[in-house]
Specification:
The complex is a heterodimer of chains A (about 250) and B (about 650). Chain A is of the alpha+beta class. Helix content of chain A is about 35%, strand content about 25%. Chain B has about 650 residues and is mainly alpha-helical. Helix content of chain B is about 65%, strand content about 0%. The chains are: A alpha+beta (about 250), B mainly alpha (about 650). The structure holds protoporphyrin IX containing FE and copper (II) ion.
């Protein structure tokens, strides 16, 4: 993609330089040749359509390949992915680990090296889920599920956030993204399970109330199908709803 | 909120802006300017002139000038919003800044809405109005009364927009008004309704303008002006008008559906009961993408006129430019999905829309080359319109490049919703659209008023705008790449802070640019004797508008010009011949009409009533519109006979 950028930048710089040069060279107070009726040239025409067309042809091919290679829906190579279900709330994120049976608020941990599939939905207005250090964003919308595949290759801590304006608490709607080595990840799960409370209708109702900059919170138990039921609650068919069909 | 009452709907004392000093100041300035204007007209004793010369005029030139005045007023309002946001973000590193989030949200929403709908659209429509009939050798537009209705509906929308500052609050849902956020569940007040009704009402006016200009251009050209002899600005206006007619209904429908959701509790786009907000996003951008070309194609037309005139040369690559314009117009309907690559569509879909988007860069690139080659072997005079054109060419290509980058889906996944996007589209709308309009304003001003605008202040304005733009928006590319989301009222990332301070300084330079525009106008009016142009052709122009006097008579041309080639007027000057024309004749011109202003007033009542649930007012507005239309259709003697050169025109 850098070549693509380089190619365009070169053309842009040439255009700027030529514009400024022509502007100076053919100034009225100068002595340069004046050809007031010169208004067409096949050679120039071929170049002016040809060069942009060529660059766009090269870029277009690249777009086709890269868009498929970097499709956020495409599972990443490696071990079978860890599934994390993320629910956008006003103005925080709830993460559910169905395999581990835990849930967290405003903190998500990824085992280093293992692909992760995020399944996204929203309880509120449209959100856009992104962990900039790891990859791009995908919208989270009520009543449907969207997906994003990510993988952390080095341990570390970064910030993820909602990128789509969704009201008063939007600016502070961030969460911690922890990339943890296998062992530490397991410890983290254990900690969440042992210190956390239960995620159920009552605690979820409380959590759903709009709030800003919530502290990290853990839930040690999560009902199976909690995520699918939240989607269904907003009219989604099943957890295969949303854009799945169009895929 | 209290229960709505019959008389006042949900309007009550709480609607007055006593909740914050910023809102109160805004309201006071708005009301003060309005009252000041009324007082001034009264003091000068000019109500009659204002009424019969302007407010009820059906002259396309006067309507055009009123559009431009509206645009300049709204430019100031939109810019006040902009610099308030820039100040907020310069201050709000690790603090709340001086604006609470809700206020910041109203400001970015009103800024975007004003700049697109009530600054850029009226500006471009005003220039089209003033220039197109003159350029095609016509005495008026096809439907002069409809033209006035278009203007007054736009003014009604702008009025709603302005009054939202005084009574109630404006939307916080951004200029795009995306549901589900814009549904009552998340935004229960009147804000989103203000947004809906102001753009819906002005949108109807715009649709009528589109129809009017298609018919005008296709039917009212002077004899001999074949399509391929039309000036570039006429071509771009034609393409933009076609886009308006096909695109604006999508906006009207999507905002009407949102209004139904909000007002009658339907569920088109809600998060439950079967609503689906993705439909809104598709509809909105089916209008929204063509809209950016509606704004920029006529600007391309202006640059084409300006670059040929001030290079003293024929426009290079006319045929290419015509085809490039048409191709852009056509393709602009095929790319709307690039506004939501991150909605989870398949790689095939995203790749196809990404490539379609990039293809538009080809005809656009061709245009830039054609302007470049128009300058080649020209004899370039650096009057202010030309300065804006050269500045446009240098800055616009940067925005074009970042646009292509955004069209690459894998890059878009990371840059979408960031200030990189904000920088990109401002890079298109400021050096692209706005520079074009300002160039057009300075270029055609002497045609409208008979004297030129001051050159020195014009060049100052250019430098402040060009440097200010660069300083205000290049930093946003950087913060975008550093991951800064758009629409942030405060933030905690120290890396963004210095760039946002720079951006604020850039906005201050733009402020000086706006001051320079004001100074230029003031100085030029003061020194109009020095700047007078008695020839009607101050720039050694090439197209028909320069062949008539400045200002032109109400009927534009005493005798209808005959067109033999693209630059007939210039050719006649070269050959030292008078402009060929038809024999003198008598013809009909429309008389003034109050129908435009009455329908605008009715539109305003409909909007205000629907926003506040004052249903009797909305009904009265509809009644006024219906009565005006019926009355107008029975009116006889709507035209008067004109015989140029004779006094005492007969009715
Ligand atoms: C004159 C100088 C201008 C400045 C300093 C300026 C500044 C800004 C700022 C600070 C924002 C908010 C960015 C954010 O969300 O973080 C913004 C948004 C926007 N601006 Fe401007 N702007 C200017 C001119 C214009 C013009 C001429 C147009 C259109 C013709 C325009 C259209 C918009 C739109 C559509 C938005 C998006 C609003 C939203 O988020 O819903 N701006 N501008
Ligand atoms: Cu677009």
């Amino acid at each position: 993609m850098l070549q693509a950028f380089g190619l365009m930048l070169a053309l842009v710089l040439v255009v700027i330089a030529a514009t400024l040069f022509f502007a100076w060279r053919y100034r009225a107070t100068g002595k340069a040749l004046h050809q007031p009726d010169w208004d067409r040239s096949l050679a120039v025409e071929i170049v002016t359509w040809g060069i942009p067309a060529l660059i766009i042809a090269i870029l277009g091919t690249m777009v086709w390949n890269k868009t498929h290679a970097l499709d956020p829906y495409k599972p990443l190579p490696g071990a079978p992915p860890l599934v994390v279900q993320a629910i956008a709330l006003d103005w925080k994120w709830l993460f559910i680990y169905p395999e581990q049976g835990i849930a967290t608020v405003n903190e998500v941990a990824l085992p280093v090296g293992r692909p992760v599939t995020f399944r996204l939905t929203s309880e509120v207005a449209m959100n856009s889920f992104m962990i900039p250090a790891l990859g791009g964003q995908i919208y989270a919308m009520a009543g449907m599920e969207t997906r994003l595949n990510l993988r952390a290759d080095t341990p570390g801590r970064s910030e993820g956030r909602n990128m789509q304006f969704s009201g008063g608490g939007f600016a502070a709607q961030t969460f911690a993204a922890l990339a943890l080595p296998e062992q530490e990840f397991d410890d983290w799960v254990t900690k969440a399970r042992s210190t956390g409370t239960a995620l159920n209708a009552a605690s979820f109702a409380k959590l759903s109330k709009p709030s800003v900059a919530d502290p990290v919170r853990y839930y040690g138990t999560v009902p199976v199908d909690f995520f699918a039921k939240r989607i269904a609650a907003h009219g989604g068919m099943s957890h295969h709803s949303g854009n799945e069909a169009g895929h | 909120m209290d229960e709505p009452t019959i008389l006042l709907g949900r309007l009550g004392m709480q609607a007055l802006p006593f909740y914050s000093w910023v809102a109160l100041c805004g309201a006071l300035v708005t009301v003060g300017c309005g009252l000041g204007f009324l007082a001034l007209v009264t003091w000068l004793g000019r109500w009659r002139d204002l009424w019969s010369g302007w407010l009820t005029s059906l002259d396309h030139k006067r309507i055009g000038i009123m559009y431009v005045i509206l645009a300049l007023i709204m430019l100031i309002r939109g810019f006040v919003d902009a610099i308030m946001m820039r100040l907020q973000q310069a201050l709000s590193y690790s603090s709340e800044g001086y604006l609470p989030p809700e206020h910041f949200e109203q400001i970015f929403s009103s800024h975007g809405t004003i700049m697109i709908f009530f600054m850029a659209m009226p500006f471009v429509t005003g220039l089209m109005n003033f220039v197109v009939p003159l350029q095609i050798g016509a005495r008026d537009v096809a439907f002069p009364a409809v033209n006035a209705i278009s203007f007054w509906l736009t003014a009604a929308g702008a009025g709603l927009m302005l009054i939202s500052l005084v009574i109630g609050k404006f939307s916080t849902a951004g200029w795009t008004g995306y549901p589900p956020y814009s549904e009552v569940r998340f935004t229960p007040g009147v804000g989103v309704d203000y947004w809906i009704w102001s753009i819906m009402i002005s949108g109807v006016g715009t649709t009528l303008t589109g129809i009017n200009f298609i018919v005008t251009i296709l039917r009212k050209r002077a004899p001999g002006m074949t399509l391929m002899r039309m000036p570039m600005f006429v071509w771009t206006t034609l393409c933009a008008s076609i886009l308006i007619v096909f695109a604006f209904p999508a906006l009207t429908v999507s905002t009407a559906m949102l209004a139904l959701d909000r007002t009658l509790g339907l569920h088109f786009f809600t998060i439950d009961s079967g609503g689906n907000a993705m439909n809104y996003m598709n509809l909105f951008w089916i209008w929204g993408h063509p809209e950016v070309y509606i704004l920029i194609l006529p600007a391309f037309g202006i640059f084409s006129e300006v670059v040929a005139t001030f290079s003293s040369k024929r426009l290079y690559g006319y045929t290419s430019l015509v085809y490039a314009t048409a191709v852009i117009a056509l393709l602009s309907f095929t790319v709307w999905l690039h506004h939501f690559f991150t909605m989870g569509a398949s790689a095939n879909v995203n790749a196809i829309f990404g490539i379609a988007t990039m293809i538009i860069a080809v005809p656009t690139g061709v245009k830039v080359f054609d302007w470049m080659f128009t300058m080649y072997r020209g004899r370039i005079r650096f009057e202010p319109p030309m300065a804006f054109t050269v500045g446009f060419m240098c800055l616009f290509v940067i925005g074009g490049m970042t646009g292509v980058l955004l069209a690459i889906p894998p890059i878009n996944y990371s840059t979408h919703n960031t200030t990189f996007l904000v920088a990109h589209f401002h890079n298109m709308v400021i050096p692209g659209a706005l520079f074009g309009y300002v160039a057009g304003y300075m270029y055609w001003f002497p045609k409208a008023f008979g004297f030129r605008l001051d050159r020195t202040w014009g060049l100052r304005a250019f430098w402040f705008w060009a440097v200010g733009f660069t300083l205000a928006f290049m930093p946003l590319y950087v913060t975008g790449l550093l991951g800064m989301p758009r629409r942030m009222s405060s933030y905690a990332n120290p890396a963004w802070h210095p760039w946002l301070i720079l951006a604020f300084l850039g906005a201050c330079l733009i402020f000086l640019g706006i001051v320079s525009l004001g100074m230029q106008l003031w100085v030029s009016i003061r020194d109009r004797a020095r700047l007078t142009d008695a020839t009607g052709d101050p720039w050694d122009g090439r197209t028909l508008e320069w062949s008539t006097s400045s200002p032109p008579p109400a009927w534009n041309f005493d005798t209808v010009p005959l067109v033999a080639e693209r630059d007939t007027f210039h050719a006649a000057k070269q050959a030292a011949q008078p402009m060929p024309h038809q024999p003198a004749d008598s013809f009909d011109m429309p008389k003034n009409s109050v129908s435009g202003i009455l329908i605008g007033l009715g539109g305003f009542w409909v909007g205000f009533g629907a926003i506040w649930y004052i249903w009797w007012l909305a009904a009265a507005g509809l009644g006024l519109i219906a009565a005006t239309m019926i009355g107008r259709s029975f009116a006889e003697h709507t035209e008067m006979r004109v015989t140029p050169g004779e006094t005492g025109d007969v009715t």
